Amino acid sequence: MALTGAGISVESGIPPFRGKGGLWETIDPMEYAHINAFQRDPAKVWRVLIRNMKEVLDRADPNEAHRALAWMEKQNLLQAVITQNVDGLHQCAGSTDVIEFHGNFAWQRCIKCNARMATAAVDLCRLPPRCRCGGILRPECIFFGELIPPQCLRRAEQLSAHCDVMLVIGTSASVYPAASMPFIANQNGATVIEINPERTALSGKVSDFLIAGNAGPVMKALVKTIVERL
Ligand code: OAD
Predict the structure, then answer these.
(1) What is the pLDDT of residue 19?
(2) Would you place residue 26 in the very low, low, confident or very high pLDDT band (cuts 50, 70, 90)?
(3) In a 3-state reduction of DSSP, which class is residue 109?
(4) Whose CA is nearest to atom 13 of ligand 1?
(5) Where exactly are the structural domains of the chain?
(6) How open is the CA angle 6-84-124, to the nearest 5 degrees?
């Protein structure tokens, strides 16, 4: 199994949330990424957070680390990816079994009639963008204060409990329940391997190894080692 976070997409040009250059250093998540904030002032959240995210994600392509995980799946070495990312880059790289814990930014949903629309087709001239029925559109992503879809959570917990190795790539492991997956894996006897240039709350406690480095080069080296031993 792999659990991925914002760090795996940093080399694709998408900034992380925490730490140096992180999004939450410049904007307050409670003011822009909480469901109450969206309900209070959707135009403000669209203007400051969602529109900018769209610009950044539009430019991003998968990197070596996304491709390495897709390759591992094809080799039957990786069962699935649980990702906290909403950028869809795992699927772009070829991964087919991706549990999108926090949703996917590629889609919008009308809060009134529930119609679904591709983010690429949304007219951003007037914010917040609206559905044909007049309802406001929101990304199919989880805001703070919202629940993870139960089927997503259940499947992630099951896979975490039954894996023998969990790669934890590019996540600060500070947002729950996603961050509980390495705990579940560890409690059920799996080896937990972090790939991250920094230590996290898991390091030395829940994870057995920390490969200190950026996801792209580390995953490339991992694939090379696997190929040499296959
Ligand atoms: P964070 O921004 O909290 O953490 C990113 C992690 O990636 C940090 O531990 C960095 O050290 C690491 N990192 C940075 N560059 C890296 C690289 N090139 N290769 C590997 N690792 C690198 O991101 P998440 O843990 O994903 O939720 O954050 C979890 C959730 O918090 C997000 O899904 C989002 C956010 O608020 C919602 O919006 C609901």
Answers:
(1) 86
(2) very high
(3) strand
(4) 7
(5) 2-229
(6) 80
CA distances from 6 to 10, 15, 24, 77 (A): 7, 7, 12, 23
Mutate to test the pocket of ligand 1, among 69, 196, 214 (most ligand atoms within 8 A of CB): 196
Per-residue pLDDT for 149 more than 90? Answer: yes
Per the prediction, the chain carries an average pLDDT of: 97
DSSP conformational letter for 143: P
In the numeric block, which tokens belong to residue 179? 């961050």
Q: Is the dihedral of CA 9, 228, 82, 96 positive or negative?
A: positive
Question: Per CATH, which fold does 2-229 belong to?
Answer: Rossmann fold (3.40.50)
Mean pLDDT in residue range 116-141: 96
Does residue 94 contact residue 87 with C-beta atoms inside 8 Å?
no
Please state whether the predicted TM-score (pTM) of the whole model is above 0.90: yes
Distance 20 CA to ligand 1 centre (A): 11
Indicate the Cα dihedral angle 172, 176, 177, 182, nearest 10°: 30
What are the tens digits of pLDDT across the range 39-49? 999 999 999 99
Beta bridge partners of 34: 144
